[in-house]
């Protein structure tokens, strides 16, 4: 059975007019999972589900605590808590700090209900069954603790870097992936800052990474507002011969 990826948003930092930050819905064998829920993704998610309370969503995976990747998780909590009586929980795989951010946006009375809405587990390093998928994660370099995510099902692999700087683990993360979703904050690497580590990737590096990893398709994401996205595609294609997609809102990709 084919899988479908729907892009909710692909901006990094904050959303451009009419756009949203990072968010991707994966549908496979009747199971719906969302990867990241940054600014502006929730209305698009609810529209896709055709439900104001996110009925039909089975699981959420959040890579790290930065708001452009998780802030609409708070809106999802409110939709379930205020819109339903005794809602079934949604599985949430995320760093514990993400849950803390959601709780911090509420008063103590509301915060007590977070566990009634989400069934939380930390992102697993080793294989963990999530619906039809096997979920794995790997720690990657960024301003805060973050993880790359790999989802596999029979005949299907989707990998996602989240936000990250260059790291050897990225090749294994995306090895042989049918779709590799890669941080492409800038078209080309910015000038190095003396004494400062690189904590984000470029589209040029995303193309190189996808080629080395042997990925079949590349989805460029996390564009800094104002980025020339077509230039990003051009830079990625210098190294990667497979299909290259832009994380434009509403785009759907059928896999494998």
Describe the model.
Helix content is 26%, strand content 29%. It is an alpha/beta fold. The protein has one domain (3-255): Metallo-beta-lactamase, Chain A (4-Layer Sandwich), CATH 3.60.15.10. Strand 11 (179-183), helix 8 (203-213) and strand 12 (217-221) form a beta-alpha-beta unit. The protein is globular, with a radius of gyration of 17 Å. The N and C termini lie close together (9 Å).
Summarize the structure.
Helix content is 26%, strand content 29%.
What profile does the largest beta sheet have?
7 strands, mixed
Assign the CATH superfamily: Ribonuclease Z/Hydroxyacylglutathione hydrolase-like
Order of helices and strands: EEEHEHHEHHHEEEEEHEHEHEE
Oligomer description:
single chain
Major sheet: arrangement of strands:
6-5-4-3-2-1-14
CATH topology: Metallo-beta-lactamase, Chain A
Rg of Cα set = 17 Å
Q: Return the domain count.
A: 1
Number of strands: 14
* Helical residue percent band: 25-40%
Q: Average pLDDT value?
A: 97
């Amino acid at each position: 059975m084919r899988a479908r990826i729907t892009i909710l948003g692909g901006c990094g930092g904050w959303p451009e007019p009419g756009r949203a930050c990072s968010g991707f819905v994966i549908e496979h064998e009747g199971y719906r999972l969302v990867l990241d829920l940054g600014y502006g993704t929730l209305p698009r998610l609810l529209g896709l589900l055709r439900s104001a309370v996110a009925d039909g969503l089975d699981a959420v995976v959040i890579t790290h605590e930065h708001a452009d990747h998780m802030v609409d998780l708070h809106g999802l909590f409110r939709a379930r808590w205020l819109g339903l009586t005794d809602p079934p929980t949604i599985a949430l795989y995320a760093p514990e700090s993400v849950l803390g951010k959601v709780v911090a946006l509420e008063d103590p009375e509301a915060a007590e209900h977070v566990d009634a809405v989400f069934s939380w587990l930390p992102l697993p390093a080793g294989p963990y069954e999530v619906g039809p998928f096997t979920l794995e994660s790997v720690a990657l370099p960024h301003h805060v603790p973050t993880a790359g995510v790999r989802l596999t099902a029979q005949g299907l692999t989707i990998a996602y870097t989240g936000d990250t700087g260059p790291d050897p683990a990225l090749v294994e993360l995306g090895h042989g992936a049918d779709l590799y979703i890669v941080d492409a904050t800038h078209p080309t690497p910015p000038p190095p800052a003396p004494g400062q580590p690189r904590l984000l990737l470029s589209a040029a590096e995303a193309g190189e990474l996808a080629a080395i990893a042997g990925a079949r398709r590349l989805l460029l994401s996390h564009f800094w507002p104002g980025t020339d996205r077509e230039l990003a595609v051009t830079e990625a294609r210098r190294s990667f011969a497979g299909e290259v997609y832009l994380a434009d809102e509403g785009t759907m990709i059928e896999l494998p």
